[in-house]
Amino acid sequence: MAMPEVDVAEAPRKTGVSLEGSPRIQCGFCGNLYVKDAAYCRKCGGKRDGMDSSADMEYDSMCGLELTHASGVYPLPIRDACISLGDDALAFAVGRHIAVWDHVKKRLKFIGRKQENCVITAMAKSASGRLLAVAERQGSSNDSRETGNVQISIVGLPAAWARAEDGSMVQQKEGVLKVLYPSNKRSKINALGFSADGRRLVSVSDMPDTSITYWKWETEKAIATHNVQLPITRLHVNPKNGQQISLSGCNYCRIWEFNPNDHHLRENASVFSLKEEKMTDVVDHNWVVVKEEAFLIVATREGHVHVFQDGERTEDIDVQGVIAKDESTGPKAAAREQAKVMAKMMGGVGPTAAKEPPPVSLMSLAVWGQGFVVGGDQGYLGVFKVGGLGQVEPFGTFRMPGEESFLWSMSAGSEDTYLNILSYTERDAERDPTKTAGVPKMVRSATSGFGGGRASRQGSMMPSEEQEPDDDKERVWSFSTFPVSQADLASTGQLDVFVPMVPMGLHHGSVNALATCHSRRIVATCGNDYMLKLWSFPEDGALDAPNAFGCEFSVQVSTYEKPTSLAVHPLGFQVAVVLQDMLRIYHVTAQQSSRTMFDLPLKHPGDVSYSHSGELLAVSQNNDVILIDPIKGVLVRIFSGSGGHLSFVNQVGFSADDKMLLSCSAAPSGAIYGWDLESEAKDRIFEHVSKGTDYAAFAHDFRRNLCCAIARPQGSLRMIGHLNNTVEEILPEGPNATYTAISLGAPIGHLFAGTQQGHVRIFEWPLKPGGAQANPFIQVELHAHSITSLSLCSNGRFLYSSCKGGAVLASRVKAFTFASGEKEELTPALLDQRFTRYRRREDGEKKQKSKREDDRKAHDLQKKLYEALSSSASNTASLDDLVMLPKSYFQELLTEIKHLEERHLSLKHESEHALEQKDVELSDKLEQMQHERKNETEQHDEKYDSLFDQHKKALKRSEDEMRKANGEFAKRSRNTEDDHDGKMSKEFEKQSLLLGELQTLRDHDQQKLLLVEEKHSQQLEDLRSAHENAMREWKTEYEKVCNLLKSDGLKFEEAMRQQEVEYEDQITDMLEVKRAVLQVESEKSTTAFKDAVSMKQTISMLQGNIVEYTAKFEQSERQKSDLRQQLEASREMFANVQEQLKEEKRALKVKNENLGKLREQMKHLESFRFVLFHKVKMMEEERDPLAEQVSSLKHNVREMYSEFVREFRNKQTLDQELTDKKVLTSSLQQENILVTRHLIQLKKDGRRLLNDVEAILHAETAAEFEKMPKRLMAMLEKYKSLSQWKAPVDDHAIEPDDLTKEQLMMNEMVIQRDLLFRKNEISKSASTQIKRECGVDLRRLSSENAALIAEMNTLRSENRSLVRSCKDQEAAIIAMRAKEKAKRMIDSVGEGGFLAHSESAPALDGGGGAGGRGEGGGGMRLAPRLLATEGRLEDLTSAAQVLRSAADAQLGRLWEHLAGVGAACEALRQDLADKADAHHTHDKLVSISGLVTFAV
What we know:
It is built from 17 helices and 60 strands. The chain is an alpha+beta fold.
């Protein structure tokens, strides 16, 4: 959706236009004051009564400004300086406006609101993205007193950036909805925050009167206010509870709550302890919502992030530890190690000494979809994820390039595509050299297209201007984006991590000069950051194109000299920059090929300007004005002395027709001069002197021969004529409203003036007599700082402005005309015509009336010209599309492109060839691997079958043994039960006799007791009557106490029951919630884990492919070089071989002669070859069985080792079971002992009880008889513990009514004894079984070891026989060689036939006698056989040696396996010797280990 256009002339209400200098005539609709002769009210638009159409036309013809583009960042420390709107947009403050940058469309828009003299101090966005709250302070950033009123504007955002909770678009009103006015109108607003529903707003003011205000903004009412008196820096509202407000600052972090009942704000306790809060520097905080749970995240400067839930701290993340862990590997760790190595090489001193970086200090915190991010100094950015239970997981550690940035503010989009980062770097602040170099501190300006003005230098000493702060550091701001949702990919280098929003950067600090170009769409700026930048703007109709406004060129002009002025060549290929002691001219081409054309040293240069034709360049030096030819390097003229100025020259410039050179100077002379450049004497044709006036800037109208200048120290506007005093002067309203820059648009009849407060005022030109009352103006709020430069582009389409805050704004000029009686806006074509005719003096009133036919021809020709230009624009390039490059640079680029193409072709061919070869190799390898896999599969199947057969045999054997063991155990159990039954019957008879005797004794005691009772019955009746009353009272009291205890107990039980029910319900609810949360988390974690695994596999596969193809390429390169070397070597070898062939031919003739002799002498070797062949065949037949035996021996050893391992593991399992049984037996024995002790003690207590009862009942005196009840009660209280004793339950015992207590005790003891006995027997049988299995295993191992030793002996004998056969063959070969050598010696020393025959032997194919042919033929047949026999013997010898070495190696490995088996047997013997009780097992193990040791 397009932004609403803001038109000053048509909609004064939207732009905050103010009118000054009007008579006090009020509007009948709104009460606003009318301007003199104005037809409409500038506030409400109501038409004035009694005005004619001429006045109406005069009002509507005034032009307006529409802000189109801005380059810069608001340089005040606003915490929420960048706010994400939706997913692809970013809102930030620039000047007095809020700009919105679209990352996708690459366009800048502005949010429409009232900018009436307001500076932004804080911003906040609602959760739905529908509303934006903006805190403003009236005044400008230059006003250090900050006395302006404060207000809060609620702005409705466009529907493209606002979405409902379900993601759908919403309909929302745009523009300012409400304006809130705090009670304390002087305290600046530091922070703002919306509630989750967007209906409430919270604001915090600045010190010293810090207060929190809770607003219901729809009714413009402050519901609650509370004074804090503490420096609060951050404010946020709980997204799940709009009545909870979190505030933080240095040593402060609290949660406040709003009570809707009494409308009061209350402060809760600190989230930290009081001592910890005083020591903690809280830099930022925010709320994170995860699965409907809100967590408070607090970041401290020391490097800790605390997570709170419901006021309780759940996590404390040590960011320093996370950084150290993440940077322990990777390029950061490699660089650190390299620095340490370098420092060690240099001795640890000097600039190369390794220094540990200081710990990272946190500065900001922001929330994204799955957690939060923290930013700090050293370019640190940390990404963290927050789980559903509040657990925090680090997601990545990143550093901005250079590691010098401070991350001030961050904001993530709705879909986490972009994390917008506002950061800055610090550099040493340098004072302006003009403050200490003795140069007058003047305000200066430079010309624009038609008398444009550039603002003053930094050295201005106006009393109303703000002096620059004398700080040690200054901040360089920049915007960048980070893909926070793809942080895992960014950490691997697959994405651009930090992408700058403006690739070539922005200005920081004051922009000192601004100049436009006459023939190209570029604007040049320079500032206190030592940077020169060229900005481009679009042609007509392309304002909505991506990157329509952009930076084309950026270069640092100096390292210590700040540029103060500049000028652009009319063709746009040269830029002249004024430095402290130098004029430097740049040749502007591409960014990488631009260079300095020349440097001209000057003493205190002032201003510079190109003529409109580009042939001349004017520059000032102190009081002089220098005119040079920049192309040819020729000095044309110096205007100095009596013909020049008497004080420092602030500005120079040419008239629009290049016929006059103008300049203005500072106090005390205060002059404006103009020299005629077409005359030979170069006389002054424009002259104005005003002593004591400092003319800072001027603009010239050559058609009227008038100048408009800025006069200091008043800061007023003056319209000046030739040889006249001031024609007209407009004074500022106050010291803060002085004029600082001007630009004149004479063809459209308007003058643009910039003020110290950042406003741009539009006057009609020429100015009318009568001062401010006669010259109304339209005021447009643009900048938040003092404007330094104003300049119109070549056709007046855009007005560019710059300020001390580093912002460069482009505003579209909307001019109107009444050509046909109706109000029409001037199109770009009409503006071109007006400005061109103005320069060529074709826009004035013509003296002669033109003919109608001439007008028609001119109109038709102009129409054809426009059509020709529009048709050629599609297939030709305009001047803005061309770049001037040096020929040498262009040729270098062409040569480099040619080399790259050749390399590309060669690499392509080599890669194709290498790939073909690789495909063939891969296919061969694949076939070979398939064959190997097939063989392995067959081997594995055979091995599996053998193992399966062994497993079945082992199972059968174990079943037989188990069956046998079960039969023996059942037999022993029956015998044991029979013995036990006999013993139990005998014990029962004994107990019966004892019980009979005990019963007899009891009957006797009972009779005695009856006699005693009869004797003392009378006494007891007396005692009863005496104590009856006492007992009744005692019972009454006892019943009261019992009732009281019962009631209390019932109450307590009921309370406990209710509390238990409540707790059980709560626990059940919590468990259900946790179970659901865990289920969701597990599903998400599983999905994420699968995605991560798939992504990692893909990444690893791609990386492997890259590495493989890189290796292939390198290998092909190496093969290519090797082939070249081999080719050269083969050529040399070919030459050598040719020479050797010649020698070989000569040698062959001699050898043929010798062969003729040997053929006859070697006939007897044929028979020897036959015998030798049969012996070699026998040796090969003996070798094959030996190899088979070795392989079978290897297989047997492997099976023996695997079986030994299995048996050893089974033995360990049985040992563990035996240990468990022993522990169980010991525990049961201990329990039996404890039960026995308890029974003995119970018997003793029972005897004592009977004795005490008997002693009490047999009272000897009346007093003792009277005390009997009390003594009985005391005795019962003493033995009360016996009532708690419960006898063990026995299912097989006799009924309790039929048995006495002693009988029950005896039965229980018998049962316990039987159980213990059974357990003991079971343990003994298990131990015996284990020992038996160990014996079987030992016998089997001993038999296998014996078989192994037999195989070893067989192998040794075979090896000895093989060695003997090898030695015999070697002896035979030596004997044969000796015989051959002897024959050769006899032949060589013999005389006559052999030697003569050797020397005179015929050719192999030649003749001699018949006998000679026969001998020669036999020799020819015998020689190859002899050579073959020798080669065969040598092959047999080498094969025998290889076989012997292989057999020795196999025997060595076999001995090593036997040594391992012996060691394992020794360990098994030691283990069993420690645990087993049988001595024969130990003896067998000793014998087996001895045998194994002997075998090894």
